[in-house]
Design brief:
The chain has 277 residues and is α/β, with parallel strands linked by helices. The protein contains 7 helices and 14 strands. It starts with a strand and ends with a strand.
Length: 277
C-alpha cells in the first residue's frame, strides 16, 4: 500500500548526543524511519499519523543544551530498501555475531543474522540493540522460554533462538515492525518464534525464563509489573532503551517488584541492564 510521508530535516548542535536523543524522542512520537546526516538527522512520518503539534512532544527541541533547526516537506513514496542499501552497513558484535542485509556478503562468525530492516528499529546499529545482542551472546539461552517486547526487526528474538531458546514470543505495537519481524523470522529459518502485534496487554499467559525489553524508559516503567507477572519462580530480565541518568529510577522500580540488579552496559550514554528474580 502506497503511503504519503513527511520528511523532516533536523540540524543538531552539538551533534552528539543530540542526534541520539532526538531520534529516541521522535520514535516515541510516531516517526518511523531515520537517516543520520553530517549535520543531524532526517526523519520520516506517515502523513496520516502527523499532527500540527507533533513537535511539541519533543523535549530536546526546547532544551538550552542543544541548538536544533527544523524544516519539513511532503515527499513521494520512497523505495525504502534502496534507502537502506545506501545507509545500512553490516554490524559485527564481539567477533561472534554479524547482523547484515541480504545484499551484504556472508560472514564467517558463529551467528549470522540477515535483516531487511525496512523502517523498523533494531538493526544492531543503535547502541541499545548492540548491547542487548552482547547480553544474549554472553548468557545461556539453551532451552529457555523467552519474551521479546518491542521486538522491532526481531533481531534479538532471532539471536535468542540461534542461542538455543525453545520458544520466543516477539511482540511489537507497530504494524511495520510486526510485518518486518515475520519476514525476518522466515528469512533466518527460525521455527520457534511467534510474532504478535500489540503491547504488554497481549503478553501470553505462559511463564518465561527470560524477558527482553528494549523500548524506552516510560514504557518500561509502565509495563514492569506486567513483565514481573510473566516470570516463573525465577528468571532474567534484560532492559534497554534508556539513558544512564535513568538507571536509578529503572532499578528502583525493578527492586520494588522483587528484581535484583546484576550489572549494566553503557555505550554513548545509553544503558542496557540485567536483573534477576
Amino acid at each position: 500500500m502506497s503511503q504519503i510521508y513527511l520528511e523532516y530535516q533536523f540540524n543538531v548542535q552539538p551533534l552528539q548526543p543530540g542526534t541520539e536523543i532526538l531520534i529516541a524522542q521522535l520514535g516515541y512520537a510516531g516517526f518511523e524511519s531515520f537517516v543520520e546526516t553530517e549535520t543531524g538527522v532526517t526523519a520520516y512520518i506517515q502523513k496520516n499519523e502527523w499532527k500540527a503539534t507533533i513537535l511539541d512532544e519533543i523535549q530536546i527541541l526546547s532544551s538550552d543544551e542543544f541548538s536544533i533547526s527544523t524544516s519539513f516537506s511532503e515527499i513521494a513514496q520512497i523505495n525504502w530498501n534502496e534507502e537502506w542499501e545506501k545507509n545500512f552497513e553490516a554490524i559485527e558484535v564481539d567477533g561472534k555475531c554479524v547482523v547484515r542485509a541480504p545484499f551484504h556478503p556472508s560472514a564467517n562468525v558463529p551467528y549470522e543474522i540477515v535483516i531487511e530492516p525496512k523502517m523498523s528499529f533494531g538493526t544492531g546499529h543503535h547502541e541499545t540493540t548492540f548491547m542487548m545482542l552482547q547480553y544474549i551472546l554472553e548468557n545461556e539461552f539453551d532451552g529457555k522460554h523467552v519474551l521479546d517486547m518491542g521486538c522491532g526487526t526481531a533481531v534479538l528474538a532471532i539471536l535468542a533462538e540461534m542461542r538455543g531458546a525453545t520458544t520466543v514470543d516477539a511482540i511489537d505495537i507497530d504494524p511495520w515492525c510486526f510485518e518486518n519481524s515475520e519476514e525476518n523470522v522466515a528469512r533466518n529459518n527460525c521455527s520457534h518464534i511467534k510474532v504478535q502485534l500489540g503491547d504488554a496487554n497481549i503478553i501470553p499467559e505462559q511463564k518465561y525464563d527470560v524477558v527482553i525489553a528494549n523500548i524506552n524508559r516510560n514504557i518500561l516503567l509502565n509495563d514492569m509489573a506486567t513483565y514481573r507477572k510473566s516470570f516463573a519462580s525465577n528468571g532474567i530480565l534484560y532492559l534497554s532503551g534508556f539513558y544512564e541518568e535513568d538507571l536509578p529510577i529503572i532499578t528502583q522500580c525493578c527492586n520494588k517488584l522483587g528484581f535484583q540488579f546484576v550489572d549494566n552496559k553503557k555505550k554513548n550514554n545509553w544503558i542496557a541492564a540485567k536483573f534477576v528474580i
